[in-house]
Amino acid sequence: MNDILEKIALCVEFGKINKVSPYPPDMKDQDGADELAKRALDEGTKPDEILDKALVPAMAKVGNKFSRKEIYVPQMLMAAKAMNSAMVHLKPYFQSGETKRKGKFVIGTVSGDLHDIGKNLVAMMIEGGGWEVIDLGVDVSTEKFMKAMDENPGAVLGLSALLTTTMENMKKTVAAIKEKQPGSKILIGGAPVTKEYCEKIGADYYSPDPQGAVNYLKQLVS
Ligand code: B1M
């Protein structure tokens, strides 16, 4: 890997957003993911190379450290922010169609549920994994999920629920989507959700954490 890609990867892994960002203290006054991604593009590095060789592996490292409880939510959010600051420069290329994404991922927190911290982490990690993420937000009705899936054929659907009461709405959404689009893939997660519940409601996969979600999507397209 070339020097600038290695530096971008380190910035993302350790949450160095830009030069003025004081975090992490041992990278103070150094360029962050923001400046380095812009420079890499200016020097002719392809956007998909920055994504595949720097951002994706760095976010995978972050996800694995989080799964192993070596880092916690704040560090993961800083890493995701650093990744987003690089993505700002890459997005125009992806949006113009010049560079292809791996696929589309529609995500939301189910109806009645306002918790979005975990859902946002999953969305960020999946975006860092090279997917286009359509984030419908919180308290998303079955109808809204169905509309988004209709508008984005072939998209994988992700449902998050944090309350035992709203898990029931997950079941409703899964049933409605599977009836209309039997071939669609649905991934579910959230603190009260389990593998057994996933099997019971006919979703395709349960992941306890963002990295598991990224790995599931990765194997869908490999
Ligand atoms: Co709420 N809340 N809350 N809350 N809240 C919980 C979930 C609760 C366990 C607290 C408790 O009582 N101990 C409890 C639920 C009890 C239950 O149902 N069994 C609870 C309750 C009761 C409530 C209210 C009803 C309280 C009230 O008003 N009486 C109310 C409900 C509002 C509503 O949604 N309608 C409520 C409100 C809130 C706040 C608004 C104040 C706030 C949410 C702010 C926000 O999200 N923007 C809040 C918070 C912060 C929490 C706790 C403290 C933290 C949740 C969190 O963000 N965790 C929570 C207690 C706790 O968990 N310690 C609690 C960190 C986050 C990174 O983890 O979301 O689990 P998590 O996501 C993980 C995994 O689950 C997974 O990846 C993430 C990273 O590892 N994951 C997925 C998540 N989604 C995934 C999707 C996937 C794959 C993996 O694929 C698609």
Care to give the gist of this entry?
This protein has helices spanning 3-14, 33-42, 47-67, 73-95, 117-128, 142-151, 167-180, 195-201, 210-221, and strands at 104-109, 132-135, 156-160, 186-189, 205-206.
What does this 3D model show about the protein?
The structure is a single chain. With 222 residues, the chain is α/β, with parallel strands linked by helices. It has 2 domains: 3-95, Methyltransferase, Methionine Synthase (B12-binding Domains), Chain A, domain 1, CATH 1.10.1240; 104-221, Rossmann fold, CATH 3.40.50. Helix content is 55%, strand content 9%. It contains 9 helices and 5 strands; from the N terminus they run ααααβαβαβαβαβα. The protein has a 5-stranded parallel beta sheet with strand order 2-1-3-4-5, with helices on both faces. Strand 4, helix 8 and strand 5 (205-206) form a beta-alpha-beta unit. The longest helix has 23 residues, at 73-95. The structure holds CO-5-methoxybenzimidazolylcobamide (B1M). CO-5-methoxybenzimidazolylcobamide (B1M) binds next to helix 5, strand 3, strand 4 and helix 9.
List the helices and strands and how they pair.
Layout: H1 3-14, H2 33-42, H3 47-67, H4 73-95, E1 104-109, H5 117-128, E2 132-135, H6 142-151, E3 156-160, H7 167-180, E4 186-189, H8 195-201, E5 205-206, H9 210-221
Parallel strand pairs: 1-2, 1-3, 3-4, 4-5
Helix pairs in contact: 1-2, 1-3, 1-4, 2-4, 3-4, 3-9, 4-5, 5-9, 6-7
The chain binds CO-5-methoxybenzimidazolylcobamide.
